[in-house]
Amino acid sequence: ARLFVFYTDPEIEEEEAAEDESPLYDPSFVWLAADPAHIPDDAKPLRGCVACPDGSGCLLRAKLSPKRLAPFELGRSTSTTVASPQQDAFGKAKCSCLFGGMLLNCSREDFVWKPKDPSPLAERLAELGGCELLRLFESGCPVALGVLKPAVTVHAASDRRFILPLDACGEVSELRLRLAEELGEADSSGAGLELVEAGNKKPLTCKFLEGPMHLLCARPGEALKDINLPSAADDAQELPPELEPGSPGENGVRYLELEADIGSNNKPVEHPKA
Description:
By secondary structure, the protein is mainly β. Helix content is 12%, strand content 31%. It is built from four helices and 14 strands. Strand 3 and strand 4 form a beta hairpin. The protein is elongated and about 60 Å long. It starts with a strand and ends in an 18-residue tail after the last strand. The relative contact order is 0.22.
């Protein structure tokens, strides 16, 4: 079972919102595909990690690279179904597709990952049963596992950092409310917080943020110069181990290697046998 995980950005709207209107903070969608022919031309790789049980007490993990769009294989010796303790009307053990237990965690600078809950794989499996892998092939399209929401990154004293989605905190007054709560401010409105753009130290005077950006936030009595910005964006290709999804099984964890890049000529692959 060769699988692909990628994201696509929304189409750019040419119309600009008025100053007193909130911009559209459209998310990027993260997809799972089982056939390279189902991958659109604008698909992009991302940093992340996929986890799935193998049915024998081992957790399989595949680390995704933001540098290349490449498939991973759950293993030729891995069954996609496993016997379930539940029984059907005839007293026979049901089989549950392991893809229903697939988990994903991913990251992208200036975005917040929001997985679909419940997982569309688990939801369809509970409703329809059968094999999710076959459905991925037969549907003719990938399945959306969640979204990457545009975010504002706020740096505060003591190396504190808040990455907040713009759909909830794009209005500056709402951003101040959220920061006041996070920082434990006595003034719940956050009116006393000093907010400036991280790059040019320009005070934040707009009503709505235009898009993803980095800000500095100083509480009353604090100085902006005491806020330390992290070094340049992390170029690590892999998600940190503490953010990898899934709990190790009784037989531990096995990591899967990414295969070669898919290239530009996406060709359909042979459908799995039922």
